[in-house]
Write a structure and sequence with these properties.
The structure holds two protein chains of two kinds. Chain A is mostly helical. Chain A has 19 helices and two strands. Chain B has a single domain, classed as Clam (outer membrane lipoprotein receptor (LolB), chain A). In chain B, 13% of the residues lie in helices and 47% in strands. Classes of the chains: A mainly alpha, B mainly beta.
């Protein structure tokens, strides 16, 4: 009983943290407004999303090992406390002169650090408490909570902010994290006193050099892809030196990390075509998934002129499609195998993105029977992602022994989150550059100022639409590449062979 | 402390300015300029008639900037994603001429001493300088005369900070029913850059 409570509480904390990864997407215009960012500096809002992801990715591979020596619960409580501190910083952004964009980005990074740490900790806790088939189920449940939190974040943010309009709107979304985090932490501490946790191994500690290398590498990567002047260039002025330095730092991190992982994951796994293919496919899936999660609500705000809540609701069909696809993927993988299921899923998403790359300004008024065409495309897109996520995870799990399932699942999430981070940074840079190219320098001569601004809004919306069409096309291509990688790397049989 | 004299000294000091900068921040209510909700405005003024003002306005949830440069009698507007365009006629008159805010006969120097029942409140530090804080109030007509966008449904309460040594007006807070639809609103104006070098040139469209 206590085991279930512990895993449920840990999973709940993880779910809350994962919700916050993309919760800002639908809230972005309101947040930007409250910290004084104008629409013409949209690129400055990118770190509000990528800051969280960077923290998430830095913490994820490090804290599992640290908790081996410090204990799962103390480290979990520290992580969720960090998440709460980051939430407070985020919630208070713009309230004082010093709490501007840097304050907000640091808050989001700390949120991400805390939230990212919860991924390996929750998985490790589940692995500690369960054995055999129960362990796989527990790990699957925890991983599913992480996925669900990420995917539902934008709609959750929009709905909660709308419901709490009188309580601070978007700020309430982050304030709410504080009591929720406190409940999870207190519940875990209380439940731990009644449960017997396995004793920890001595000698394991946090690898600060790896942490530094990963943090610096990702930081440089984000800087390289940050469009500091999107009117004139697609990437940062420091792109070349930053990308080279990032490559060195990440390569050094990879070398250290692989060396550290060897005792846990067999060398064969790291050289396995299936593992490498699944990792590459996950990076591509993450990069394409972020397009749907981030760009669809933004498209709703900037082009379809939807409200904050409506832009979140635009994702509803996508969000319904993901769990339906996940369930269908489980059934289908059992019949036709992971490879076919995953390839079929990502191909469906590719087809949906391809349709979305032709969206028009009046897309939401176009119907196929009683359904909006846009909703059908988004539902198919979500269905495709749902279909692909579980088989890819299962393919990696099938290659590892039971005691490595937590780490393997964590690596799958890590690969996808890396894809999201790099994909979001790169596509934002590309998108804003293309936006300025498409818009050019409009000359508007309406005599009335109001008419002139309305005219400008139409031109800006048209440029954003074209930008997002191109991004959807790129997402479709990434999905096709992922499908090819899956087809070439995953094993064709129903069950992938274990090591 | 003779609060009326403090205001008179402040007005007299302001009447001798050649350049000045100001930041106006809406702290309560909604004040619209040409249909856009004003968030703040930053202006640099070279008297008698040149100014460079950036208005940050809000439409739905989005903020955007409108920069208005008035130089040599010409008015230029920089809207988001565009270059400067010269404005004429009604378009040129769409935004307030911020230089007039500091005009010695019609702007702050003329209005400040005309406050009703001025009273000394305290001596505070403003921007690192000691300043007398004086509370007073102005009629709706006086405020409207200062900025035509501010139409108040009643008298406007004001707090004015006047430098102890140089008598320059460093800060003012206006509070009254001058928001949209006669609702309560408040603005805070910070004034800096007295007689400092300001470059306001006609922008190249």
């Amino acid at each position: 009983m206590e085991r279930r409570v512990l895993v449920a509480l840990a999973g709940t904390g993880l779910f809350i943290a994962a919700l916050d990864a993309y919760v800002v997407v639908t809230l972005l215009p309101a947040i930007m407004s409250d910290i004084g960012l104008t629409i013409e500096r949209l690129e400055q809002a990118t770190p509000i999303v990528t800051g969280f992801l960077a923290g998430y990715v830095v913490a994820m591979p490090l804290l599992g090992a640290y908790s081996d020596v410090r204990g799962r619960i103390p480290v979990y409580v520290a992580c969720i406390a960090a998440f709460a501190v980051g939430s407070v910083m985020t919630a208070t952004a713009g309230l004082w002169g010093f709490a501007g964009l840097p304050w907000l980005v640091v808050g989001r990074f700390i949120q991400g650090l805390g939230g990212g740490g919860l991924v390996p900790l929750s998985l490790a806790l589940a692995a500690d408490l369960y054995r055999d088939r129960s362990r796989t189920l527990a790990l699957g449940s925890v991983a599913a909570l992480q996925e669900a939190g990420s995917v539902f974040g934008p709609l959750y943010g929009a709905s909660l902010a709308a419901a709490a309009a009188g309580l601070g709107g978007w700020r309430f979304v982050f304030w709410l994290n504080v009591p929720l985090a406190a409940i999870c932490a207190a519940g875990l501490v209380a439940a731990t006193r009644r449960a017997e946790l396995p004793s920890r191994e001595a000698g394991s500690t946090i690898d600060w050099i790896s942490a530094l290398l990963l943090g610096v590498g990702l930081g440089l990567l984000v800087i390289a892809l940050y469009p500091d002047d999107p009117e004139h260039r697609p990437t940062n002025i420091l792109f070349v030196p930053a990308i080279i330095a990032a490559a060195f730092a990440l390569a050094a991190y990879g070398w250290r990390h692989v060396r550290e992982l060897e005792p846990l994951i067999p060398r064969d796994l790291l050289r396995s075509r299936t593992f490498i293919g699944a990792a590459v496919a996950n990076v591509l899936v993450g990069a394409a998934l972020i397009v749907a999660l981030v760009d669809v609500p933004l498209l709703g705000r900037l082009v379809f002129n939807l409200s904050q809540l409506q832009s979140g609701l635009l994702l509803t069909q996508f969000l319904i499609g993901v769990p339906v696809g996940a369930v269908a993927g489980g059934v289908l993988a059992g019949r036709v195998g992971s490879r076919v299921t995953a390839a079929l899923g990502i191909a469906l998403s590719a087809a949906a993105f391809l349709q979305m790359s032709g969206w028009r300004a009046d897309e939401l008024s176009l119907h196929a029977g009683p359904l909006r065409q846009a909703d059908i495309a988004l539902a198919i897109c979500g269905l495709g992602f749902g279909l692909v996520i579980a088989p890819l995870t299962a393919a990696v799990l099938a290659l590892t022994r039971g005691q490595s399932h937590g780490l393997a699942t964590s690596l799958v999430v890590l690969a996808r989150t890396m894809g999201m981070l790099v994909g979001l940074s790169a596509l934002t840079a590309f998108g804003l550059y293309r936006f300025h190219q498409i818009l050019g320098t409009p000359v508007i001569n309406d005599p009335d100022l109001r008419d002139r601004i309305n005219h400008l809004e139409q031109l800006v919306a048209a440029a954003f639409l074209q930008e997002y069409r191109e991004i959807f096309l790129i997402a479709a291509v990434m999905c096709v590449v992922a499908a090819v990688v899956i087809a070439l790397s995953l094993q064709p049989t129903r069950k992938s062979g274990g090591t | 402390m003779n609060a009326a004299k403090v205001l008179r000294d402040g007005a007299a000091a302001m009447a001798h300015l050649s350049t000045v900068s100001a930041t106006l921040k809406l702290t309560k209510g909604i004040v619209s300029i040409k249909g856009f909700a004003l968030v703040n405005a930053k202006t640099s003024v070279r008297l008698p008639a040149d100014s460079d003002t950036t208005y940050t306005v809000k439409q739905q949830d989005f903020l955007f900037s409108l920069e208005v440069v008035i130089s040599g009698g010409h008015v230029y507007l920089h809207a988001p994603f565009t270059t400067f365009q010269e404005q004429t006629g009604a378009a040129a008159a769409a935004f307030p001429d911020m230089a007039k805010l500091f005009d010695s006969s019609t702007g702050l120097p003329a209005m400040i001493p005309a406050g009703t029942s001025p009273r000394y409140i305290s001596t505070d530090k403003v921007d690192g300088k000691s300043a007398y804080q004086v509370a007073t109030s102005y009629t709706a007509e006086q405020v409207h005369g200062l900025l035509s966008e501010l139409t108040s449904a009643g008298p406007v309460n004001a707090r004015v900070w006047v430098g102890v040594s140089d008598h320059l007006i460093r800060k003012a807070v206006l509070d009254g029913a001058f928001g949209d639809g006669g609702k309560e609103a408040a603005v805070e104006v910070d004034i800096t850059g007295f007689n400092s070098t300001i470059n306001i040139a006609s922008p190249t469209p």
